[in-house]
């Protein structure tokens, strides 16, 4: 195995590449042994380097980088890795440098290459520092299961909340796209209605749903953007939409995500009320947060963990290029949760 299970401080020496490094000493067992022990003794603590090497291979796995291109690594690959890492990229680059040297390769980056990477990282810092609030943590599959287990799907209010949550997660939707700011704010030209849902089967005979957004943050005026949903086991958004239609029958022009009050009146789901219900459940299960969790970023993280091409995720999530770092960075936060549960 190229990457055997071992302690973090051993990865620098035990994790290898498929390419053969150039010779650095004469071919003699005593000299080669001296070189090996000298390499190991040159670092007092290799644990932090081990974490960086692991993150580098996670990046390579997500973007389908061939083993032969990982060691030695090119400037293009390490520049991309630094942009993706976002937090402490220089620390991770130092780990990759140490890994190259420990494996018998020259340092992969020249001073000029470091200068070019630092230029890009300053730009990212400017983008991130201009954000008005911190990135919200993603919703995970465990949280989605907790919502599904707690919400009463025969209750109109809860059935609506569950349909919103499932669609927002698997459709990578902004929560404002499945809710309204107030009851009076609902407009069919701006918000989803029952007629904006299409249920069908693809060429392979698999069920899917299409939600046609009459307005979206990244859409031009009058442009319709579509969200595509497919079956997803017990957390399936299509099943959630069908349950919503059964529990809360409505007219084509009525809000898609709506519920009926005790008088029988149709009400669009107000964002604050839905989030209060969701956050109450998430907090009760031990995942409280000051900013709330993002279904959109959680869904993107889920698809990345299933090795969906990141560009497909970007297109399906309707992200523009400057927002690309948002969900790529979020994947780091929940990689272990999603990688251990690869299906709903």
List the helices and strands and how they pair.
Blueprint: H1 11-14, H2 29-41, H3 47-62, H4 75-85, H5 89-102, H6 111-129, H7 141-150, H8 156-170, E1 197-201, E2 207-213, E3 225-230, H9 237-247, E4 258-260, E5 266-268, H10 271-284, H11 295-305, H12 310-316, H13 324-339
Antiparallel strand pairs: 1-2, 2-3, 4-5
Structure description:
The chain is mostly helical and 344 residues long. The protein has 13 helices and five strands. It has helices spanning 11-14, 29-41, 47-62, 75-85, 89-102, 111-129, 141-150, 156-170, 237-247, 271-284, 295-305, 310-316, 324-339; strands spanning 197-201, 207-213, 225-230, 258-260, 266-268. A three-stranded antiparallel sheet has the order 1-2-3, with no helix packed on it. The model is unreliable at 330-343 (pLDDT under 50).
Helix content: 40-55%
The proportion of residues in beta strands is 5-15%
Distance between the termini: 30 Å
The residue-averaged pLDDT reads 85
Treating each run of at least 4 consecutive H or I residues as one helix, how many helices?
Answer: 13
Assign the structural class, choosing from mainly alpha, mainly beta, alpha/beta, alpha+beta, or little secondary structure: mainly alpha
Short description:
The chain is mainly alpha-helical and 344 residues long. Helix content is 47%, strand content 7%. Helix 8 packs antiparallel against helix 9 and helix 11 packs across helix 13.
């Amino acid at each position: 195995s190229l990457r055997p299970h071992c302690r973090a401080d051993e990865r620098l020496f035990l994790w290898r590449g498929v390419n053969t490094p150039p010779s650095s000493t004469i071919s003699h067992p005593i000299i080669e042994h001296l070189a090996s022990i000298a390499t190991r003794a040159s670092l007092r603590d290799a644990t932090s380097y081990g974490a960086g090497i692991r993150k580098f291979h996670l990046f390579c796995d997500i973007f389908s980088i061939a083993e032969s291109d990982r060691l030695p690594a090119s400037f293009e690959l390490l520049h991309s890795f630094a942009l993706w890492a976002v937090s402490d990229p220089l620390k991770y680059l130092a780990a990759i440098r140490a890994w190259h040297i420990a494996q018998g390769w020259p340092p992969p980056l020249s001073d000029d290459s470091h200068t070019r990477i630092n230029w890009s990282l300053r730009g990212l810092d400017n983008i991130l520092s201009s954000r008005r609030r911190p990135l919200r943590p993603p919703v995970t599959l465990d949280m989605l299961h907790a919502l599904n287990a707690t919400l009463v799907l025969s209750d109109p209010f809860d059935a609506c909340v569950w349909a919103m949550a499932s669609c927002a997660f698997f459709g990578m939707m902004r929560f404002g796209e499945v809710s309204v700011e107030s009851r009076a704010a609902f407009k069919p030209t701006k918000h989803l209605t029952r007629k904006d849902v299409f249920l069908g089967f693809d060429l392979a005979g698999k069920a899917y749903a299409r939600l046609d957004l009459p307005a979206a943050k990244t859409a031009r005026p009058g442009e319709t953007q579509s969200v595509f949903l497919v079956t997803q086991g017990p957390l399936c958004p299509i099943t959630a939409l069908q349950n919503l239609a059964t529990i809360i029958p409505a007219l084509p022009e009525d809000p898609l995500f709506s519920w009926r009050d005790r008088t029988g009146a149709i009400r669009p789901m107000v964002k604050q009320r839905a989030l209060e219900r969701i956050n109450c459940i998430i907090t009760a299960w031990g995942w409280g947060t000051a900013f709330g969790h993002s279904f959109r970023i959680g869904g993107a993280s889920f698809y990345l963990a299933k090795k969906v091409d990141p560009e497909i995720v970007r297109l399906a999530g309707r992200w523009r290029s400057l927002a690309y770092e948002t969900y790529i960075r979020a994947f780091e936060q929940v990689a272990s949760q999603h990688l251990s549960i690869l299906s709903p």
